[in-house]
Amino acid sequence: MKRREFIQKTGIAASIPFLINGMKVSAEATPFFQDLANAGEAEDRILVLVQLIGGNDGLNTIIPIDQYSQLSSLRNSVFIPENKLLDFDNNLKLHPSLGGFQKLWQEGKFETILNVAYPDQNLSHFRSTDIWTSASDTKDFVPSGWLGRYLDSKHPNYPDNYPNVDNPDPISLTIGNVVSQTCQGPVYTMGMAANNIDNIYKLEGSSLESEKDEYAFSELDYINRVKKQTSDYLDVIEIAANQGRINDSIWASNDDGNSLANQLKVVARLINGGLKTKVYVCSIANFDTHSNQIDSNDETSGQHAQLLRYLSDSITSFQDQLKEYGVEDKVLGMTFSEFGRRIMSNNSRGTDHGSAAPQFLFGTAVNPTVHGFYEEFNSDIQQNDNLDMQHDFRSVYTSILKDWFRVPENDIFNIMLKNFDTIQILKGEFTSVESLQFENSLLKCYPNPASNNSTLEFYTVTSHVEIAIYDLRGNKLQSIIDKLMPEGNYKIKLSELSNYNSGIYIISFKNRIGKKSLNLSIQK
Hints:
Blueprint: H1 3-10, E1 17-20, E2 23-26, H2 31-41, E3 46-52, E4 62-64, H3 68-74, E5 86-87, E6 92-94, H4 99-106, E7 110-117, H5 125-134, H6 146-154, E8 172-175, E9 192-194, H7 214-243, H8 248-251, H9 259-272, E10 279-284, H10 303-325, E11 331-336, E12 357-362, E13 370-371, E14 391-392, H11 393-404, H12 409-416, H13 433-439, E15 443-446, E16 454-460, E17 463-470, E18 476-485, E19 488-494, E20 503-510, E21 515-522
Parallel strand pairs: 3-10, 3-11, 7-13, 7-14, 8-9, 8-10
Antiparallel strand pairs: 1-2, 4-6, 5-6, 7-12, 11-12, 15-16, 16-19, 17-18, 17-20, 20-21
């Protein structure tokens, strides 16, 4: 049996215990030339993931104020008083615990994508987490994680001869006791886990030995090398921790049992200390709020309010710390949760497992906007009804690979297992050339306002193109184009506009690079 087969069958690389502060550590020009330049530019970029374990209630996180009356009836056991909500974007407001997110939004460092999910939602915590970390379809079981496959594509020989001169640091680091499944590679765990960077302890003693069994000797030799690799990584972590510094005054408000703040402090300190790790994973638990989501005497307090305050304050302090270091532009952050909650609340002052929920991105690179909208909540909604998916979470992942890490398109397909649309999640100066060209490409409609007819003008690369007209509630009214089109500029006559009432409508344009829209005013 070859070593790769041995590891695949036994999982030994991810199960060797080491200790950090008493906690386990697990080892585990032309487009062509422009792509090369982009790859070099992206080499020092860092991604920080924050997992919201349990399923966050999105409708009590970002609230559609234009439907407040209807939602307060549907969610009467958990809803927040309108006068307590924080100003946000247009018809949306924030939970009162999210003052930090409001601050980041005002600074242009916060972005949200509404109604993120996947088709055929599975409402099991464990299975849905598997799907989110692996980026698989619901019916497919994929043992590797999407970031593990990305890191494996960059380090195909890992873990042999790692660390080395070019890669002296862990390629990913989970702040906790177990390596995040999202960093599991096709065979090996692409990184390690560390719970506490102060007082690092390493496994001491002689190497494991076997004198009689040649097969066992071969595998124990590998285990000993993994043990040495982990010890070497702990050495560089310790050096970075000693060189890094934290401004405690930035984090003072988070020292009340907020474990996420402590995790992000570790990440900030290691980045400041010079660690070149590409991916960090943190987590915050207890979002499974089936009961007592709010305090019986105060709707703005309770379990969910505390979790959102921890989340918001920690991420805001993290951003402030990065700003003080002068490294904001090299770090992108993103949250994810295995699912959202139902539209209606239950009878236990809580919410049950649902489907779609908002994702948050943070950092100077984000496109500070709101992607998507809330559907109309009518009187026909039942207890088991869910928010409809508007964005596949794998489109978010694809966008990060393409624009943040500048991964070539063919490699993205291998990492994501199929093709997905992208979303303009980054500001223009941070995106890939192709995405920037798309952002600046032609899309206009004239005359606008229109009465009976109008002309839509657009540019597309060779791609399947979908163009449709929607009302402001997100209802699709007319499909204009849904076909493969060669690259070029196009003019399409919009007729039958006289069939629409006066008002504002949305023209949605989508091709393989991304999605964009414009407003069409119809006046009669």
